[in-house]
């Protein structure tokens, strides 16, 4: 399948993009080069190859979830401009 200059101009129009004549020609050539390469890839024998999302196996590396000491509340609030009942007090940003 080949992309024509008319196709590129139509997509630009639908995308509300202004492209020059040189850009339309360049995009036409680039898109056709991509499609030609896809034809090459389609000729590769992939029989028996499992579909994969990544070349290497991925595994989440998670640490054990355990309780450990954290910053003391009074120390955390010591530099707060305002605090109320042990929490940071910030200006209201939503209209009620």
Description:
- The chain has 96 residues and is mainly alpha-helical.
- It has a domain of 38 residues: Histone, subunit A, CATH 1.10.20.
- It is built from three helices and two strands.
- The chain has a two-stranded antiparallel ribbon.
- β1 and β2 form a beta hairpin.
- α1 crosses α2.
- The longest helix is centred in the N-terminal third of the chain and has 22 residues.
- The model has no long low-confidence stretch (mean pLDDT 91).
- Heterotrimer of A, B and C subunits.
- Keywords: ATP-binding, Ligase, Nucleotide-binding, Protein biosynthesis, Transferase.
- Its EC number is 6.3.5.-.
- Pfam families: GatC.
- This is Aspartyl/glutamyl-tRNA(Asn/Gln) amidotransferase subunit C.
Keyphrases for this structure?
two-stranded antiparallel ribbon; single chain; 2 strands; 96 residues; 3 helices; Histone, subunit A; mainly alpha
Number of strand segments? 2
Strand content: under 5%
Using the 3D structure, state the CATH architecture of the domain at 5-42.
Orthogonal Bundle
| CATH topology descriptor of the domain at 5-42 | Histone, subunit A
CA-CA gap between termini = 58 Å
Name of the top-level CATH class of the domain at 5-42? Mainly Alpha
Overall average residue pLDDT = 91
Alpha carbon gyration radius = 29 Å
């Amino acid at each position: 399948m080949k992309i024509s200059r008319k196709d590129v101009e139509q997509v630009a129009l639908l995308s509300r993009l202004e492209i020059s004549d040189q850009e339309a020609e360049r995009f036409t050539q680039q898109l056709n080069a991509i499609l030609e390469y896809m034809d090459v890839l389609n000729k590769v024998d992939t029989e028996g190859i499992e579909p994969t999302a990544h070349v290497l196996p991925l595994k989440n590396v998670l640490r054990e979830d355990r309780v450990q000491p954290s910053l003391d509340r009074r120390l955390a609030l010591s530099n707060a401009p305002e605090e109320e009942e042990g929490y940071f007090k910030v200006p209201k940003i939503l209209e009620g």
